[in-house]
Fold ABC transporter permease.
Amino acid sequence: MTALDTLTTPAVPRRTSPSRGLVLAMLRLHRSALLFWLGLVVVAAGALLWAMGPGADAAWTEYTDTGCDLSHPNLGCDIPGPANSRYQTAVAVGIGLIRLLPLLTGAWAAGALIGRELENGTAQLAWTQSVGPLRWLAAKLAVPAVLLMAGTLTLTLLHRMLWSSDLAPLGVMSWRAWYDDGTFEINGTIAAAQALAALAIGVLVGLLLRRTLPALGVAVLAVVSLVYVLDEVRPHLWPVKTAVRGLEDGTAGSDSMIVETGALTASGARVPIPSCSGEPGCDARNGITHYYADYHPASHFWPLQLMETGLLLAVAALAAATAFVLLRRRTGAAV
């Protein structure tokens, strides 16, 4: 082969697989959403890391310097100082951003990811290329799901490290129990499952309505409703324990998720606690012999977590499967 042959040999074009090309095109098209997601993760992670380190140290030092850690703290301990306020703000920012994630995900998936592309025709254009409708939808679900899982699980791990770093000072300074909604959802697998469910719901709503603003509004309403319903049914996802106390002992509930409280009569019947306003002998005159409390102890954290996570993943799978069926029927695409 001569030097002239070498110069005139045509270059072999670099081929990109249709799936890889679809992923790259999707990342370019939604780069603003990607940058926003990365920024949200960075801000939330930074707030949690600061709270875990210098924020908590400064708040605890301020707390002990004022003598609030002693057996007889002064009345000023009920008012947090500036270091504690900064610590609380950082934790609230981290928790708030993570809890806001399902709402943002559902709105974006319905409006920008699916609804806008169907409304302006870019989805139909993509289907005429080398990628079919079903593969297009699979990429729309898979790529955001991977990014959401990676970021959300990272923030969950950071929050769990913060919450379990030193439970004694944390409990004094922040007043957050394991069963509080924000703490409970972010300390386990629920936050990631909520994001996946919101993504699938948003995609389905976008396919159903095919318009940006209506799809965005309906998706937000659907995600809010889902989170609200699961918050309400959460205490009933696992069998409760029951504690019975005498009239002088009061009701149970230390470090527990209280589901129901009431009073017991001599026959064992459950009745509401009477409004006695501290009147001596009022309970006995109403036939009350004991108090009871149905509750979840801290050992029920993971059973409740996994049950709710399973429900969220079931919703996500159902919404995704429905989206595939709907798209196939509309386009006649083969599986």
